[in-house]
Amino acid sequence: MAIDASHNLYVADTGNATVRKISAGTVTTLAGSVGVWGLADGTGSAASFGIILGTAVDASGNVYVADPIQRTIRKITPAGVVSTLSLDSAFPAVCDPTGVAVNSDGSIVYFTDRGNNLVRQRTADGAVTIVAGDNVAGNLYVVDTGNHTIRKVDTSGTVSTLAGLAGQTGTSDGTSAAAFDFPAATAVDTDGNGLCDRQQQ
Length: 201
Fold this sequence. Notes:
Layout: E1 2-3, E2 9-13, E3 18-23, E4 26-31, E5 42-43, E6 54-57, E7 63-67, E8 72-76, E9 81-84, E10 97-102, E11 108-113, E12 118-123, E13 128-131, E14 140-144, E15 149-153, E16 159-163, E17 183-188, E18 194-198
Antiparallel strand pairs: 1-2, 2-3, 3-4, 5-9, 6-7, 7-8, 8-9, 10-11, 11-12, 12-13, 14-15, 15-16, 17-18
C-alpha cells in the first residue's frame, strides 16, 4: 500500500496482477489487466505485471511497485503509463525485490531483496547499491515478515524495531505489546502515521 499527498491509496492487487487506486471510496484500476501476467510496459490495461508485492508513491504521484517474479521495479505515472526501471549490470540476477520505498522526488528507490536478506537502493542513473538507509523525515520502514515486526532504518543507518515482537504472531494493538501475523506491506502518510497490511491467508 501507498498513500499520496492527496490521501489517495494505492494497493497492489497481487491476485489480479493490477495496481488499484482508491480515491474518496472509489476504486479504479491504475495499471494492469485482471488475470493477465507478464512484463509489458504501456498505459493502463496494456501493461502487465508478474507478482506485485510492494507499492510506494513519490511527491509527484508516480507509483513504484516491486515485482519479484519478473525481478524488476516498475514505475507508474498518474496517467497510468508503466515503465520498467533500468538497473545496472552489477544488479544480481538472484535478487528478489519485494517491498519498495521512494524519496520525495523519485530519484532514489529503495527496495528489499528478500532472496539475499538485504535492503538496496537504485539511483536515477540506474546504479544499485546495498544500503541500510523513507518517509518525510527520510526514514525507511521495512516489513520484516518472517519476524512479524516493522523495522525502521533512520538516515544514519541505525535499525530499530518500530512495532511487533520478533518471532511472535498475534493481532494485539498497543505500543510495545503490538503483535502482527506475517505483515506484508506498510505505508506512511505525511504526518508519519503508518498502515500495515498482512499476507492473504
